[in-house]
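Homework-ish question, so no full write-ups if that breaks the rules, but can someone show me the predicted structure for this set?
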Amino acid sequence: MATPIEAPTLDFSSRFPEGVVADERKGFEGYIVDADKLIEFATALRDEFGYDYLSSVTGVDYVAEEMLEVVYHAYKTIGGAGLVYKVQVARDKAEVPSLYDVFPGADFQEREAWDLMGIKFTGHPDLRRILLWEGFDGHPLRKDWQEAYYEADVKPFKSRWPEGNFYRSEEKVDYKANVKYPGNFDPEKWVPEGEDALYGSLAKYEDTDTSGLKTDHITVNLGPQHPSTHGVFRIAATLDGETIMNMKPVMGYLHRNHEKIGERNTYLQNMPFTDRLDYLSSMSNNFGYALAVEKLMNIEVPERAEYIRVLMAELTRVQNHLFAIGMFLNDLGAFFTPSLYAIEERELVLDIFEMVSGSRMMCNYFRFGGLARDLPEGALTMIRGLAFERLPRKVDEMDRFLSDNEILRSRTVGQGYLSAEDAIRYSAAGPMLRASGVPYDIRRADPYSIYDRFDFNVAVRQNGDIFDRYIIRLDEIRESLRIIQQAVEQIPEGPIQTGKPQYQVRVPAGESYGRVEGPKGELGFYVVSDGKANPYRYHVRAPSFINLTAFGPMCQGLKIADVVAVLGSIDIVLGETDR
Amino acid sequence: MENKDLNSPGYEIPDDMQGVVSITTMDRIYNWGRRSSVWPLMFGLACCAIEMICTAASRYDFSRFGMEVMRPSPRQADMMLVSGTVTKKMAPTIVRLYNQMPEPKYVVAMGACASGGGPFKEGYNVVSGVDKLIPVDVYVPGCPPTPQALINGLIKLQELIDTQSIKQVRWYQKGELAAVPIPILGPDLIYQRDIPAIHDAGKEA
Ligand code: SF4
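A: Not a homework solution, just the prediction itself:
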């Protein structure tokens, strides 16, 4: 069952007699804060009320009300339910004070809201586009912005339904391609904005060297095509010799417009798209989205389905961490041999996914109120074999071979340090947060589904260095295996779906935020429904994306070769980073 | 290579010379060499890249077909395996990489996205298939294609190589091969071939 967030019984009226009111729209919760009170409110939340973790920042375009709303989700790192607060501004004058100084974790998220929604965050030190490029025309997530292939506001499109006609979108547009330009655009006069803004933001550094030796600073680019960036990720860095003076991640090379497409899809149509967010852990993504929509629909999930969900989510964590460790060792220079071992085990988990869902990677297995189908015969036996026999042995084996390796240790111990305070400030999540000594795991801190029934430890490490971020993944695999072992023993018989399976679900108007502890960290889905067949707003709080906020600060002062190791230890998947 | 693939038909080879002497064509030897050592560019775009890695890894292991030497540098690669969604922001880079690869070079579009835009086709930042940018030799359907499907696609590429002739392939013709023009990131992606048309449209507006 989706645990409903209890409405926080906080009384802000004495602390904030004006400027903060409860959100009373039906189906909505939290508080609406005046823009000029925002910084004061957020600071008070952090310092006086204990909401020290800013999880998600996003915008919603209420075009009919001529208003843009910025939505903040805050949590306490000691656990418990969250708090939502919002700032509403006029559409044509969308300016909101930036929370960068209070929560640096808002950095990238505010840039994203600027890029896609056109909300200006005053006081943000580096408000550039983040997913698209400088010079792009318009802010695509605004409701009145239409792309070249635009057909209708919502699916299913009339042209294909119910007759099933189809045509290729290319045939209907100018230039036979997915492009459109502003009316009076002249390409011959166009000067691309290029990368000046990016390089300008890599602040210049004064030489602090007093030895009299004059050294130049150079700017280098890593990626977007580079073997150790885990996809199309780019790093621009200013170097002094080999030392990183300043570094900015550049992303968006895999920006696939997940949210725009998601707001056009029906609720169920989004399920397979969530698979393709963090394509290594599709089951977890399904889980988070299903939770968010179930919370809106207010439906329960049968017992057996809950168990299967947990099984799948934990198997996902196991195979994700295996892959992450393999690729991390790749980055350290142990080229491909550890990966081969890790991938071999991962394949066995994928076999189970293929068995239950029909696909190795893109499982599309969860449904609102249950699952697509029951476990096939033999699946439990296979899971049992893996969880009790093979995987514990293999994880120990990897641990034995790798963790004491001298090269691994000397490259990772004490490097890429992130303190507990910084991890919280930068809104880091998942293994990255816990490796810095913050025991925050949503499965414990704000339990969902049936995680409160299992006996497991929240893996925590104290040093906050690369090594801890590596070893914590082994710890987590072991804990996941424990959960799987218990779940396989306890799983009851019974139905796997509440009510009849439906293509078109009825979702009452309102908002909800469903979050799960994905393998990479807190994966949240913010869904706003206006009662129609499609989500009005659909936002993904992507851990891969937000974890990168701390990447730059973490790398400062390291050697260039270590950047790759730090990146590997964060474990990003570009599909989720760029969405 | 077995004798039957190597020897050109119509030439008798005495029994005692079998396996020692072969009469064959330049093309065959040359193609055999190339088809057995296709070096892919190490370059993953999206979800399909994970299946590409799995195809290269323990269970499926495409080195059995002479493809294991993934090259991080385009200058050393023979084949670009476009494994995933091609976005507009990435498009100039992909074309640049393609231009940097030395001939002979091949492109395999892996998956629905690379072949035609895939599930994300309608997106404002998505190019409807990599063939809008560079010529593609083999398309592999699937989302993602399973490792088996990818291997099948790669074998298809080998079959394609088998049919080529040094005399006809475009990279051995006289003159320089023109580089593919690199699209520009404007208010939207600008294909260089469209510039005059866009210019005219802008004037009318
Ligand atoms: S074809 Fe499917 S699996 Fe491959 S990149 Fe596209 S969405 Fe991902």
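Now go work out the reasoning yourself. Hint: Chain A touches chain B through 63 residues (CB under 8 Å).
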